[in-house]
Amino acid sequence: MTPPVTAPVWPAPVADGKVDAVVRLPGSKSLTNRALLLAATADGPSVVRRALRSRDSELMAAALRALGHGVDSSGDDWAVTPSSGGAGDARVDCGLAGTVMRFVPPVAALHTGRVDFDGDPHMRTRPVGTLLDALRDLGVAVDGGPFLPFGVVGHGSVRGGRVVLDASASSQFVSALLLAGASYDEGVDVLHDGKPVPSLPHLEMTVAMLREHGVDVTAPGDEGSEPDRWTVRPGPVSALDTTIEPDLSNAGPFLALAAATGGRVLVRDWPSSTTQPGDRLREILTLMGCTAELGDDGLLVTGPDELAGVDLDLRDVGELTPVVAALCALASSPSVLRGVAHIRGHETDRITALATELGRLGADVSEREDGLELRPAPLHGDVFRTYADHRMAHAAAVVGAVVPGVGIEDVDTTAKTFPGFADVWSGLL
To answer: What pLDDT does residue 356 have?
Structure first.
């Protein structure tokens, strides 16, 4: 049954022609939250420069403060001072931040005292049981699960060691253990046993950041490594000042705006080399008929006169699915988006939500177990529900830019990773 509209509906602005715009994005949420957590476990103070100021990153900062770490987020550059030894009970609000719900418990286990975790109602349906069971196997006392709320009882240290888990629902289960593993007595030795791990670029991001902090990590693909096995050896995490890249996944709706209108959008400061999965937008948009040129000023995407459909496996870049699906609904030929069964466990079941909401606008869309099939069909205006999911709001804005009459329920959910999104989007149109 379609949920009722319970939040304000924002009329999506419509482009009056080919958009020609320049965009400067806020910092990456994935990089910011990893950097904050590593800084809190480091052997001295450090600074996270150009940190993303959003609900997710503020929740991470608040969680680390609850564990006794100092996080000064008053400026653009956030100073982090690790605790000399946190003690006492604490509470952590996860909100809708998967990185807080999954990355903080392994660090909370190093705390002395009970740490209770809870979050928004939508968050209580997101999977975390695999991580909690892994922590138990590593010697951590955990109450509750497999969903929020739950509690972690820390005793100041964690044994660590070997653990086998199934991370096919989220690569964050592995990242969470790796990020804390250097502080465990025996480190961590994580073996994945199950279907392929999704979102591997995010795991590669975690490994790269650990190595930048001087942590000894072995990952699949390294000489002498094993498939689906990651090892972090115990040792210090070096303090390191970090500069955060722009959030390339948040570039999705803006670059899609060029694609949908046949216009041009330049995203400033696009990195020439990055572990962010959003960098694959260059390839995806080119397959749909766009041109994508990376230069000194950033990434310039120019849209075609007619969008082509695509057949894509998005397993490694599932977070891009909503915006790509919106473009596929506007394409002149059929599309298939595959390999993203895991996004059913994101902020909402994104596969069902996209099929429902794009279908309400007239899209000819079929739901697959692991994705979507879309065929050309005329679209019309209606309310597009977001299910408290920022990526759903992005998809709605893209369609609304070329289809009059689209109303976006709760556009403010975009503050999760991009505060002020609606104002920036309106300014471009």
So the answer is: 98
Amino acid 420 reads: G
Kindly give, in sequence order, each residue whose CB lies less than 8 Å from that of residue 365, ignoring residues fewer than 6 positions away: 325, 329, 354, 355, 358, 359, 372, 373, 374, 375
Which pLDDT score is estimated for 80?
A: 98
- Catalytic residues, by residue number, are 319
The mean per-residue pLDDT over the stretch 26-42 comes to: 97
**One domain, residues 416 and 323:** yes
Q: Which domain holds residue 366?
A: 9-26+247-428
Output the pLDDT for position 50.
95
CATH code, domain with 106: 3.65.10.10
| Domain final residue pick, 204, 232, 260 | 232
Q: Mean pLDDT, the chain, as a whole number? A: 96
Is 21 in contact with 266 (CB distance < 8 Å)?
yes
Identify the three-state secondary structure at position 264: strand
Judged by phi (left if over 0) then psi (alpha if -120 to 50, else beta), residue 110 lies in alpha
At 161, is the secondary structure helix, strand, or coil? Answer: strand
Q: Are residues 276 and 366 in the same domain?
A: yes
Task: State whether 254 and 219 are in the same domain.
Answer: no
Which DSSP helix (H) or strand (E) runs through 354? helix 350-360
In angstroms, the CA 426 to CA 429 distance is: 5
Alpha-carbon gap, residue 412 to 16, rounded angstroms: 24
Nearest partner of 156 among 118, 196, 115, 190, judged by Cα: 115
The structural domain count of the chain equals: 2
Can you give the three-state secondary structure of 113-136, one letter per residue? Answer: EEEEEECCHHHHHCCCHHHHHHHH
- pLDDT tens per residue across span 256-280: 999 999 999 999 999 999 999 999 9
pLDDT at 323 over 70: yes
Q: How far apart are CA 104 and CA 56, in angstroms?
A: 13
pLDDT reported for residue 2: 58
Is residue 205 domain-shared with residue 342, that is, in the same domain? no
Residue 225: what pLDDT? 94
Q: Do 278 and 178 share a structural domain?
A: no
- pTM of structure: 0.91
Nearest residue to 83 via CA among 108, 100, 52: 108
* Residue 4 counted as domain residue: no
142 lies in some domain: yes
Q: Does one domain contain both 33 and 22?
A: no
Per-residue pLDDT at 5: 72
| Residues sharing a CB contact under 8 Å with residue 252, sequence separation 6 or more, in sequence order | 278, 281, 320, 323, 324, 394
CA separation for the pair 147, 334 (Å, rounded): 38
Same-domain pairing of 58 and 119: yes
